[in-house]
Each structure stands twice: as structure tokens, then as C-alpha cells.
Amino acid sequence: AQSVTQLDSQVPVFEEAPVELRCNYSSSVSVYLFWYVQYPNQGLQLLLKYLSGSTLVKGINGFEAEFNKSQTSFHLRKPSVHISDTAEYFCAVSGEDDKIIFGKGTRLHILP
Amino acid sequence: GAVVSQHPSRVICKSGTSVKIECRSLDFQATTMFWYRQFPKQSLMLMATSNEGSKATYEQGVEKDKFLINHASLTLSTLTVTSAHPEDSSFYICSARFHLNTEAFFGQGTRLTVV
Fold it and tell me: What is the pLDDT at residue B103?
């Protein structure tokens, strides 16, 4: 079975500074990886996904992530954050059993 | 992206009554739909996976008789919380996928409060 670990429950960062949100996964089979963002009292919106191909994936709102198979990681990055990026970010993994399993989430807190 | 509509967005019900939550894929046919529960400031806990025309597969610890899931068509799944109690109060979110190993699209969520 697959699992996802997001080590940082909260990440404070100053506005216009770069940010990295960490995600590590475990799976015995080929995986498909996702990052979702959740704003308060809303559902989840897909930021980006890795299904196959290039390991550097670009998503919406200026985010990107790199799939690293040897380190079983899929860290999310943005070179310059904005106050509107304040939200909860979830890393997720899907394997051959069709389930999508989520990490515990990382709250991105933008400081003025 | 594809749109998943979840209704209602908020519901308050009395203890002992049942509540039905609908999840519709508006512009695509969803072979698989998922139901999640989210507690305040926590992650999404997968409750069950449903495929059109077959019984839902529940995760360990989720009561099948309490959380009834029906996936009657490729665009509609429903979650019925039967005999609701205050501890069932939570944020319930559905999601739908085109097919295996593509991204899932999420509904807006339903805030259930049982009083």
C-alpha cells in the first residue's frame, strides 16, 4: 500500500520569498503523484500532477514540483510567494489500486 | 478542468435523522468516485471508493451501514449518513476520476452539523 509523508505541518515564509513544501512517498509499485491546494471551507484544487515523462512538473499559480524516484520525493516549490498563496497544501499518491491517499497537509503561512 | 458539483454545501440536522449528500460530475463520466471525511485542520480520510453499478469498497473502520454509498450512474454518487449523531459532524468531500491513475476532481465539500 502507498503512503505519503508531509513532514512540515506549517511553513511560514515572507511574501515574495521562495518556498519549498516537502513530500515523501512510499509505494511498492509505480506511482502517480499530485499536489492539491485547499482554501478554507472549500474542496481541493489540483495544482499539478506527475503521471509519467519529465520529472519536473509545472502547475498553476507558478508552482512546480520535481519527481525524484531515488529519494521517493515530490517536493513543491514556488520562487516567489504571494499573500494569496496562504492555504493548506496536500501531497497525494495513487497506485494501481485506484485509491488516492493524502498526506497530512502543510499550512503555508505568508508573512507580510 | 472537469467540474464536480457537491450538494448541499452545508446541512444541519437533528440527531437520529439521515442526511443525503450528492456528488455529480458535470462534464465527464466518472468511472470511480471517492468519499472523504476531513476533521478540522486535518487531512482527508478516505472513507470509500465507489464504481458505477457496483458496491462501494469501504476503508477499514468505516461503518458500511452508517455511511451508505450509492453510485447509480457514471455522473452521480450519493452518501447517506444514517441515524446521524453529533460525532458524525464533519466536512465531507467527494471526488471523481475519469479512469485509473488520472487526477481526481473534487467537489466543494459539505459541512455537516448534527445537533
Answer: 84
